[in-house]
Amino acid sequence: MSDTAILATKVLARLQQAGLMLATAESCTGGLIAAAITDLNGASNVLDRGFITYSNEAKTEMLAVREQTLRDHGAVSSQTAAEMAAGALLHSRADIAVSVTGIAGPGGGTAEKPVGLVWFGIAVRDGEPRTVRKQFAGLGRAAVRRDSVMTALGLVLEAAETIANQADVP
């Protein structure tokens, strides 16, 4: 079993235990986070929906990311990742939403936003979204995407644990 499958299994079990639903908002991962969950039996108990929003238009239309945010900060930014996660919650019945936006490469990077830069957003109901920045350097496109999935799943597991502990769910 791959590291991704092992982590996805832990995420699914914890979400199920706590009675939580997940939504994903994915750009550079193109649905790989949702796929990691749906590869597992029981996915329908925890995954509400996944948004693949590769283009800026998709981000604004499907997730309500503000055009001003995209103009001022770009698609690969903390602000966009936060709005993507918040939008996924707004447009779903999920309790937790994770978002990913980045530059997987091999092209598309700049000095300010190099290849391998990925921003993650994590949002929970009745909370403010938070973001995490990762720089995956010199790994290649497939590895950046794989490591992005692992990071996103880790953020979901952490959020599910926090919610479960606050609700005193074993």
Automatic annotation (TrEMBL):
<dbReference type="Pfam" id="PF02464">
    <property type="entry name" value="CinA"/>
</dbReference>
<dbReference type="GO" id="GO:0019159">
    <property type="term" value="F:nicotinamide-nucleotide amidase activity"/>
</dbReference>
<keyword id="KW-0378">Hydrolase</keyword>
<dbReference type="InterPro" id="IPR008136">
    <property type="entry name" value="CinA_C"/>
</dbReference>
<feature type="domain" description="CinA C-terminal">
    <location>
        <begin position="7"/>
        <end position="158"/>
    </location>
</feature>
<dbReference type="InterPro" id="IPR036653">
    <property type="entry name" value="CinA-like_C"/>
</dbReference>
<protein>
    <submittedName>
        <fullName>Nicotinamide-nucleotide amidohydrolase PncC</fullName>
        <ecNumber>3.5.1.42</ecNumber>
    </submittedName>
</protein>
